[in-house]
What does this fold into?
Amino acid sequence: MAKVVTYTHPLGAGQLQAFAIDPKITESELIRMVTSKDGTSKFSLANLSQDIFYKAKVQSVEDLHFQVLDEPYQVPEKLRAYREALESKMTAEGKFNGPIAVVEGDIGISMKLRRGGYFDFLATKLEVVPANLAPDKYPAKATIEQLMKEYGIPNESRARYLGFAFLMLPQDGKEFQLVQRAKGMGVAADCIASSGSTPPFSEDFFSSGFNFSEFYADHIAQEMQEEFKMSDEDFRLGQGFLIDDKKTMPHIGWMIKTPLSTEAMAERILGNPESIKEHPVLYSILPSSIPEFLKRFDMWPSVSFLTDLFYQNKESSNPAYFF
It folds into this structure.
């Protein structure tokens, strides 16, 4: 019977534990994966704070309020030629334009949502070069970010959908968990980050009296089942940090506590395809080791911001505070 390949890496006064849930990852590969990342950190809260903003904290998903706008999201007119070329390419590759909830304006305890599609998000990612797909419509090598400045398109006009990040606290908060994101992910691919999800836009949002808190709580429960094989009894959903990342999208960092250890979680999902396609490796550190980890290991910017926010909270030494 296959066993989880593990590696323990020194981390100041603590240690970083890595657990490979993909059986194809050997011990030597796991060691190389971790050691090659040590010393890569570019963490600077001052730099991150230029683009990433902490907006609010909610005690539970029930504290959020939503208004759904009738008109669906549309890519700015001057970028639609690229959006059309992108859809043709993605459709030919068998990709699906999944529904996303685009945040209109700012993220907050009360926010407005529009119906959008995943291709809208891809067509307004700042780093993409439209001329690669529509060379007759856009200047060579110019990115969406550069074109938006040239065309006078505000950043809020991008398809900035609502995302979730899961700040996992195994062993009821004795551990802080991160993951190695899989290659090919739509957001935060092939890097250290948190697990997370993209809650879809539902046509049911337009129904009178629709229960958004139940919808999003059910979505999180489904993600916990798919990614970690955890039932409702295995975890507790806590507070949420509302974050606006101007470079990517607005999102909520949800605190999720489980009595399971990261090792036990890895054993549950060893070889599970749904888990592997999201994150082939789980990482565990002590909450007290967060500063050392941030100093040494590069992470997805929004998640490093969230991780530091969790640590800097005056009650972070008592994880029960978040639940």
